[in-house]
Structures are given as structure tokens and as C-alpha cells.
Amino acid sequence: MFDKKVIIILFLAVGFSLTSFIRSQPSKDNKVDDAFSFNTIENKENGVVVLELFTSQGCSSCPPADILLEKAKNEYPENVFALSYHVDYWDYIGWADPFSNKNFTVKQSKYNRKLGYRGNYTPELVVNGKEHLVGSNRAKVESAINKYAAKASPNRLMSQQLDRVADKVNFNYKIEGATKGKIIRAVLLLNERTTEVKRGENSHRTLKNSNIVVAEKYLELGDNSVVGSITIPKIVKKDEKLILMLLVENDNAGITGAVKAAI
């Protein structure tokens, strides 16, 4: 039989390791004013700005970042490519996020190792694969949008074919610019969904998520073109709108081009 002191020590050790792994970064007042809007982009280069938000419905600090991501998406429809990756490390705190995926947690960890940040946190926003910031910080998000929109993107993608057949989205895109050492990330996003959270830190709240990543895959580049398909997962309902994004990545996970289309 275990000694009671040993059991208590083991319990505290497990609790400490869990809380040290899961971190959240709250905004100043943990909300975003619905009337707020970004300023106009200060440049005319129209470079692509890819915003990858690592979030969770189980994190009380995440809803402001979710709102901010949607506003950036709506106010900069040409420049901003918004992606919402739902991580799984909050699922054990009372609410299992229906969109969470352990692969997205792995993706976040890879980004943070590359960017020199120890551990993961939510809401984390990675911009063009090159820097990270707290996703609910409006001033920093706006500054990052202006920064990368001011830089011409090395690659440009043009659709040759895009169609949906049963549970698959087929595509064929031509790519301009240097492609040596680069790959394509194909991402399928659910335009939006509202969820009634029944447990956890956001218990009894109704949350709206936008541009939710539901599937992704990496593809090799052909002769300045990419041809492929991506499967629509069963979590997507029949009448829900989808978005396809293709992102060009260099060998250091930096994003050099992007395109998006409603399905």
C-alpha cells in the first residue's frame, strides 16, 4: 500500500507539471470592443500577411483573440490570411474543444522552438511564420499587419482549377517567383461556427470561431505549379462554408506567398 505522503507528493507533481505546460496570456480587460476597427494599411505593396492563431475554446483568455482575428480577416480581405488552429492541451481542464488537434499543438511547438520561445501559450499569434505575439494585443497585431503588408511577397499563386467533388476539394495553381527549396501547405478552413461551451474556463459562454482549420497537408511543388486535393472531414456540416488556402513556405517555415478561395 502506498504511503499517504507519497501519494500527495505524486499528485502535486502531476498538477505542477500540467499547470507549467499550459499557459494563457490575457488581454488587459479580457474583451475586445465590438465597435473597434483597425486603421487603414499604411502602404501600397499589398504583401500577404498570414496570421496563425493558436487558440482553444477551453482558454478564458482566447475569446478576445478570436474576435480580433475575425476583425482582421474582415477588414483586410485582400492582404490578411487568417487561420485559427485549435490546440488540444486545454481539453483536459473541463472542456474538449471540438476542433482541437494534437497535430496543431505539435505545429505550435515547432514554431516556438524556431522562434526561440520556451513552451506554448494561448492565444499565440504567429505572423508569416517569422514572429509571434499575444493574439489579443490589438496594437501589436495592427503593427504586424502593416509591417508585412509593406513587403512585396516573393511568390504569387493563380488558380487554374478549383472544384469540390463529394468530400474532396481539387485544385491546380500556377506559381510565379522562385520556388527552389519551397513547399506548399494546403489548408482547409471552416468559415465560422458558434459553440455553446458547457464546461471549463468558458463555461456558459457562446463562442464564435472564424477560419477554423479542419484539415491541412503539405505538397511538393511541381514545375512552378501545384496540383492536389484535400479531404473535407466529417466535422464539417453540409451547409457550412469552406475556404481553401495555399501557403508557399521556404525551408525555414517562412511564408513567401499565399492565396485563398471560398469553396
TrEMBL record:
It holds the Pfam family DUF1223. InterPro entries: DUF1223 (IPR010634), Thioredoxin-like_sf (IPR036249). It comes from the Bacteria. PANTHER family: LIPOPROTEIN LIPID ATTACHMENT SITE-LIKE PROTEIN, PUTATIVE (DUF1223)-RELATED, PTHR36057. This is DUF1223 domain-containing protein. It comes from Maribacter aquivivus.
